[in-house]
Amino acid sequence: MALNLSPNFSEAGKRYFNTYSPGDDFYEMLINTHRDLSDEQSELLNARLILLLANHIGDIGTLREALNVAREGV
């Protein structure tokens, strides 16, 4: 499975007027999930989210590529 770097957010059964709207919805959910957490709690939430999504993806090659791409920007 190749890493998809294009916008790819959607919600089953929901139609969006703008193609960027689902990404905005996700960003809002992410910010709200971190609201009122300490820095330590926020870091723990991020770590748990990364592991949950990595498990969902499951493909080691895709995960390796994602890690390399993420590291390039740091």
Can you offer a commentary on this structure?
By secondary structure, the chain is an all-alpha fold. The chain has a domain at 37-74. It is 62% helix and 0% strand. The protein has three helices and no strands. The chain has helices at residues 21-34, 39-57, 60-72. It is globular, with a radius of gyration of 14 Å. The relative contact order is 0.13.
Strand and helix layout:
Blueprint (H helix, E strand, L loop, with lengths): L20 H14 L4 H19 L2 H13 L2
Topology pattern, helix = H, strand = E: HHH
Average per-residue pLDDT, rounded, comes to 91
What is the number of helical segments per DSSP (H or I, 4+ residues)?
3
Radius of gyration: 14 Å
Query: What gap, in angstroms, lies between the N and C termini?
Result: 24 Å
Strand content: under 5%
Given helix and strand content, the structural type is mainly alpha
Oligomer: single chain
In short:
This protein is mainly α and 74 residues long. The protein is built from 3 helices and no strands. The model has no long low-confidence stretch (mean pLDDT 91).
